[in-house]
Amino acid sequence: MQKLRVGVIDLVAKGPTRSLFPRIMNANLASIMPQVIALWCEQEGHDVTFVCYTGFEDLVKELPDNVDLVFIGAFTEAAQLSYALSNLLRSKGAITAIGGPHARCYPQDALNYFDYVLGFTDKAVISDILQDCSQHRPVGRYITAKQQPAALPGVRERWKFIEPTLRKAPFIKMVPMIGSLGCPYTCSFCIDSVIPYQPLDFDVMREDLQFLLQKFKRPLIGWHDPNFGVRFDDYMNAIEEAAPPDSFDFIAESSLSLLSESHLKRLKQNGFKALLPGIESWYDLGGKSKTGKMKGMSKVEQVSDHVNMILRYIPYIQTNFVLGLDTDEGAEPFELTKRFVDLAPGAFPGYSLLSAFGQAAPLNLEYQRAERILPFPFHFLNNNQAMNVKPKNYSWTDFYERVIDLTSYTYSWRAITKRFRATRGMIPRWMNVVRAVSSEGFGRIKYHTEVRRRLDSDRQLRRYFEQETSELPQFYLDQARKDLGSLWEWLPEGAMRHDPNAYLKSMGAERHLSSDQGYESGPEIISLRL
Ligand code: B12
Ligand code: SF4
Q1: Is the model's pTM score more than 0.85?
Q2: Which ligand number lies closest to the CA of residue 257?
Q3: I need a surface site. Which of 58, 106, 116, 341 has the fewest CB within 10 A?
Q4: Interval 210-257: pLDDT, tens
């Protein structure tokens, strides 16, 4: 096979920025898979240039002029950036491929802008593309492995890509690790609700931890597991066997049901400093928070007690909520969350506006069937800049007023002071203050307030929200143009629009294609040409 010049780009940012928080944090939010892809391409004998885009790099200058094939990893919020970039790279003769959350959620749309669109990605998929490496236009080729890969290269193997990325992080340097894929829970809105749980190799994990002790005095590790600690004892054994107690600092996303007091004791001993459990709703998803059928105020009380217990062992906790779920109605859900803010003052609540990311979850089919999906451009789909599901039990004005009220309550100076007092340790205390007064707290109150104001004063925007028009309001167009900077010029015609019901339509297309034998099956690859 010809030796190719391959580029791999991890889009952490969705456009150029000069702000302080991204400068400090973005390199710490790098994804694992682009590093894996870069390694696999090298193992196949190709020359690889790897770029983690944090919003400060000149992407075009970072890649060699005559690059043959470029893999881009993107969240949906970076879709427009990735489309513009693909267009630019194609104009220079490159073949382009996209993988990651956007490609998994919106493959039909991405096929219009890339030669390859990847779902589940293992080494066989990458080697198939390296061999084929040819133009697929105007509609690209969709390739997915049958399931998540059985193994992924660990930190030691990925180090040559991790190191230059972390060099971009001035103070905090967090190494991304993963010990499992999929999840045994079935939260209806989640991309992993239908993906079986699968642990990765615990020996690799142990070796990676030992390796990191040679690189850092006290390594800081961010676990990317969808739900950390399902095989709790295996994880803890691997950590304890790797080094003496409390040699590392760890951050993980874990469901409350896994955070019993005995588990917390062990997590504390092993250096866990921050946990991000999802509470999501006071009426739904009881299994995940170990509250069973408990609902409403009794769930608030139980979860608050649980969170306060966690704070006795772990210095930092972010509790995640989804606002606007179909089970929510009237003032109560918002008022209950305010009671939670009072009863568990040390937690940092993270709020997400209900978002349906294309074909992420089967539940999205229901929203599409009910014609409740708004066609907000991908650029705004990051759980807070836009809500693309019409709320079932609220008008838009009512909903936004309640969101503003809750957010203002949560990031009021009274709550900030109480949070400061209820938290131990300087870093967690100040982290909470900074997050509340920055774009995440005060910034979102301002943004939601502006949207609420426009719902009355901006007729074009109101009609868009009410699904009376699909013409994008100027308010959003201006933001996207500003965010993309000079790459806006490279955004292909039509790339700000997508079919919000593509998932539903694709269900029909898939049945049709399979009966026509439109699938190509290989030993490990199912490739579907649309
Ligand atoms: C870990 C995680 C994070 C971490 C790490 C993020 C990162 N840079 O990777 C943190 C906490 C930083 C984070 C932040 C956010 N996240 Co997040 N996160 C996850 C989580 C829990 C696991 C993802 C993961 O790493 N899985 C393990 C990998 C190996 O599997 P995989 O993602 O399925 O990837 C497979 C393929 O997609 C492919 N692949 C993946 N990447 C690439 C790249 C290339 C080049 C190729 C070829 C292939 C490829 O290969 C993999 C193997 O088959 C998922 C939820 C979930 N349960 O999956 C949400 C999820 C990915 N996050 C989500 C969101 C919305 C966000 C935020 C926007 C939230 C916010 N408001 O801040 C930010 C955006 C951050 C950013 N721009 O980088 C959404 C994404 C939806 C979408 N379509 O964009 C998800 C799906 C959760 C959800 N709402 O359902 N997140
Ligand atoms: S526990 Fe988390 S990762 Fe698992 S299905 Fe629910 S939301 Fe998804």
Answers
A1: yes
A2: 2
A3: 58
A4: 999 999 999 999 999 999 989 999 999 999 999 999 899 999 999 898
